[in-house]
Write a structure and sequence with these properties.
The chain is α+β, with helices and mostly antiparallel strands and 739 residues long. Helix content is 20%, strand content 23%. It is globular.
């Protein structure tokens, strides 16, 4: 194999020196980069290729799927004709295809309709029921159903055989990410990006980190076709392209840089002390023709608090300055690595009856590789994309090589490519067409999605995405989002001062964050034992949070307006970085305050509870067959477990905003009808912050949640008329301090 120089990339002493360091032909290393482990031989590589080759055997080769578009009798023609005994025999012989059916593997949800016609159905007798049916004619997908579970295969041409247009031009996935084929594709994508993508060049900064790992091949290697790498830590490196690694630590890091070993590392780093994920990243760096790599565990002195803070404060520059980020998506820890062959995703060889190019009615039999489709959730929940620290790394990178379940995906600001196969949702960012209910998923090079969303909704989306991820050390809550905050401040106008995870600009809006109760994230909502932020900041708690969002906030259609004033806000910093950790802070608000009684009903995960205004009684609101409490109020208590069950808890609520919007979809239809007739429902909704007093500090409170309220000013559009909650009874406009 030849390590092809990455032409048309930035010139200078960096990118191509890895290739130039060896004058002979070399190939990328497969996991092994030093004498501690044997180098990979050609026989071993051939064996790996054989190991991931599509499965075929005497059982599954009997299957012939009729995919003729003009077939009039698809129900019977091509019947796979397996009996229960045949299936049992195939399972005894370890037929991989029928084993996958039995295990219900590779499952996704599917819907049928005019755009997804069912063409061919194949049914086996119980207990093994397998239905084959065409799903997508644009890119042929073959679906199956096993015991009422749905799944898909994608059909590809067999490499080396005459291709058929039915199976599309895309080659099958390359299940050997650590191969010259994969690296040659990566180099092609990098060359094309640098040569043609204006957005990528403009976003990429000219910045060099304090330290980098220098990766070169060993001179005078006894076997030039099996080079070994020499790695050392370089301080104040020369201006040159470099890569960064985004990965999960998963615990303390073997071989990390300390004050004690930094001198030794500047001469040579023994690779046998490094975890496999870092070794794989070095391999990729060398494989794409680059010389320098930044890895936090090695490029930051891990037992120096001063060096840590210096480097963390420059994280946005480090990732924006990197020419490439290597994302170890599948690695749960630094010990796992990410370049192993994807043996679990090997496909199957199917016989497919297709339309004959010469028009024969019976068609012709062709072979195709059937690759199982992984579910979107399976890709989105890769280990790397569940960790909080890695969120900003994906957002601030210009170009990313992401290694997922099925191999490598390249993405940048203007393009994305796969290492063969259909594009998988490894880098998918859900649409923010309406800017509401959207969430960041995985990677967004250049954080482009923020560009089209105005502050403060853009920050609300970031908070929701970031807090959905896991954080091992709770004290890092503000540190792990500091780089994205730095970038946000750069690109958004009018955000003002950063205060413990919130911006002074439109801060009242941001104060309405609440626990994401419908989240599937497993993080438990709790208040940490150690202080890390004021109670009004989402950073003060553990859990998945979202900021109240509504499309009408952007377009003005709901009459959104603030109902209180922010008189003062300040925080006390731990260090000198205003985007970093805090050790204190408070806000002073002036607005309408009303006392409420809340009662936790103890129903578990969705324990919203119920309540009413202080002065009313619970009996005033009990209705037969319904949850008691004022139905104009909705409760979002931050940590319900903090409170006893079935006890009256007195709180105060300060009104923060009001808006006009339908209560639900049914009402929305009625409102539209009413408006067409020239009327208006005049329903007002509001949001406020729930507070409890701090003992010994007059007019000083701690935030414990948010509350929604509603009511009507006039006209009830057929609903029972109740006044807007804050307009009813006793409320006072007063100043409160929240710490």
């Amino acid at each position: 194999m030849v390590l092809v120089p990455v032409n048309n990339l930035p010139t200078g002493p960096g990118l191509n020196q890895a290739a130039a360091s060896s004058q002979s032909q070399v190939r990328p290393l497969i996991h092994v980069v030093n004498d501690a482990l044997p180098p990979m031989t050609d026989d071993q590589e051939d064996q790996d290729q054989k190991y991931v080759s599509p499965h075929t055997c005497r059982h599954c080769s009997r299957i012939t799927i009729d995919m003729r578009q003009n077939s009039k009798d698809g129900k019977d023609d091509g019947q796979i004709g397996f009996t229960e005994a045949d299936v049992i025999s195939a399972l005894k012989d370890n037929c991989a295809l029928f084993s996958a059916f039995r295990q219900g593997a590779y499952l996704v949800s599917m819907t049928s309709g005019p755009d997804n016609p069912i063409w061919v159905e194949r049914t086996l007798k119980q207990p093994a029921i397998v239905n084959f049916f065409e799903v997508d004619w644009e890119r042929l997908k073959l679906g199956y159903k096993m015991n009422n579970r749905l799944g898909e295969f994608v059909l590809y041409n067999v490499p080396g055989q005459k291709p058929h247009e039915l199976f599309g031009p895309q080659p099958p996935p390359n299940l050997l990410p650590n191969s010259e084929l994969s690296y040659s594709r990566a180099r092609k994508y990098l060359r094309d990006c640098f040569a043609n993508h204006t957005k990528c060049r403009e976003f990429n900064l000219s910045h060099m980190p304090t330290r980098l790992l220098e990766v070169v091949t060993r001179p005078n290697s006894p076997n030039p076709d099996e080079p070994h790498l020499i790695v050392r830590l370089v301080s104040n490196p020369p201006l040159a392209p470099y890569a960064t690694l985004s990965y999960c630590w998963g615990g303390d890091q073997p071989g990390k840089t300390t004050k004690r070993n930094i001198g030794t590392y500047s001469r040579n780093i023994p690779l046998d002390v490094l975890p496999l994920t870092i070794i794989d990243a070095l391999t990729v760096t060398h494989g794409v023709g680059m010389k320098y790599l930044w890895v936090d565990a090695l490029c930051i002195i891990q037992d120096s608090d001063r060096d840590k803070m210096n480097e963390i404060s420059n994280m946005h520059l480090i990732y924006r300055g990197a020419f490439l980020t290597v994302a170890a998506g599948v690695a749960s820890t630094s010990l796992d690595g990410f370049l192993r062959p994807r043996v679990h995703d090997r496909g199957y060889v199917f016989n497919v009856r297709v339309d004959s190019p010469v028009g024969k009615q019976e068609g012709e039999i062709r072979q195709a590789i059937a690759m199982p489709v992984r579910s979107r959730r399976d890709q989105e929940m890769l280990p790397l994309y569940t960790r909080a620290w890695t969120f900003q790394e994906g957002q601030l990178s210009t170009r990313v090589l992401a290694y997922g379940n099925r191999g490598m995906v390249f993405c940048c600001l203007e393009s994305r490519h796969t290492d063969g196969g259909l594009e998988e949702p490894i880098t998918t960012l859900r649409s923010i067409d309406d800017s509401i209910g959207a969430s960041f998923k995985n990677l967004d090079p250049g954080n482009q999605s923020l560009g089209g969303v105005r502050h403060p909704l853009a920050w609300g989306l970031i908070v929701e995405a970031y807090t959905s991820r896991e954080l091992t050390v709770g004290d890092d809550k503000l540190l792990a989002v500091m780089a994205i905050a730095e970038e946000y401040k750069r690109i958004k106008e009018g955000v003002g001062e950063y205060l413990a995870g919130l911006w002074r600009g439109d801060m009242l809006f941001q104060l309405l964050w609440a626990a994401h109760r419908v989240s599937d994230v497993k993080t438990k909502f709790k208040r940490p034992e150690r202080y890390r932020a004021p109670s009004w900041s989402w950073a003060s708690l553990d859990g998945h949070f979202r900021i109240f969002l509504h499309q009408g906030v952007l377009d003005g259609s709901i009459g959104y307006k603030y109902a209180c004033e922010l008189l003062h806000a300040e925080t006390t910093l731990v260090g000198g970085n205003p985007l970093g950790q805090v050790k204190g802070g408070f806000i002073r608000l002036r607005g309408r305050v009303k006392k409420v009684v809340w009662k936790r009903n103890g129903t578990g995960k969705h324990d919203h509870g119920y309540g009413w205004a202080l002065g009313d009684s619970e009996s005033d609101w009990v209705k037969s067959g319904e949850v008691p409490g004022d139905d104009r109020l909705s409760w979002y208590v931050d940590v319900p477990d903090e409170w006893p069950v079935k006890r009256d808890i007195v709180m105060s609520c300060i009104e923060v905003c009001t808006y006009e919007a339908p209560e639900n979809l049914m009402q929305f239809a009625m409102v539209q009808l009413y408006n067409e007739r020239g009327g208006s429902p005049n329903m007002t909704q509001g949001r406020g912050i729930l507070l409890v007093p701090v003992e010994g500090q007059p007019d000083t409170y701690r935030r414990v949640g948010t509350m929604g309220c509603k009511g009507y000013l006039e006209g009830d559009v057929g609903f029972e008329k109740k006044p807007y909650w804050f307009d009813e009874g006793h409320s006072m406009r007063q100043e409160v301090v929240v710490i």
